[in-house]
Amino acid sequence: MKTIRENGLDGVSGLIILYGLGLLCLPVWVLTGFHLAWLIAAGIYLILGSIFLHTTLVGKAHIWDRLLRGVPLDKHTRALDIGCGHGLVMFKIAQRLPLGGHITGIDIWRQLDQTNNSQSAVERRLAVSELTQEATVQTADMRQLPFADQTFNLVVSSLAIHNVKPKAGRLQSLQEIGRVLQPGGRVVLVDLGFSCQEYKEALQRLGFTDIHVSGNGPNGWWGGPWMPTLTLRATKLN
What sign does the CA torsion over 104, 110, 116, 119 have? Predict the structure, then answer.
């Protein structure tokens, strides 16, 4: 339960659908005289739900642990976590920052996007973890970031930008990332597969370079490989 409270559940409606369909198949299996097909269907849906649950509770954390080993951090790091939620990525970066480095997390704290999501909860965790010097959070919309141009040299985001609807809002968010990022600054985005392809095209138009999209394997499957989590890395050219 502590893991769920600290990380929240992403896409809880999808989790409910998968487990719900699995449980629904069980009484149908009984009513149809224990027809094997319905038992198999129940098992498949429950397995897909379990894969989904693994990704939201454990898999995404493993993804970021691996990614951050390749992200250099120093006392000059000024990082921004877009849609920080419970602070999974922000805490991982804050714990790795040398003295002088800092990360800011922003979110609008929608329960629909992640359960038990609130600024006060993250601030309490920062205080308990003694990371209030390394990290701060505030309420802000990623489509209108309240920061001056070229404030940050690293921007990260985990499974957040795809929640912005419609597409124009997501493109506006990427433009804002480009605005607040310093020349030579890096972007690391982890998001749904179809979203990362969209981001790649948008960042190319915005003048980013060294854009790479890669997979994350089963740790990023939202039920199965047909709904993967991908990673996009890019550098702001100018």
Answer: positive
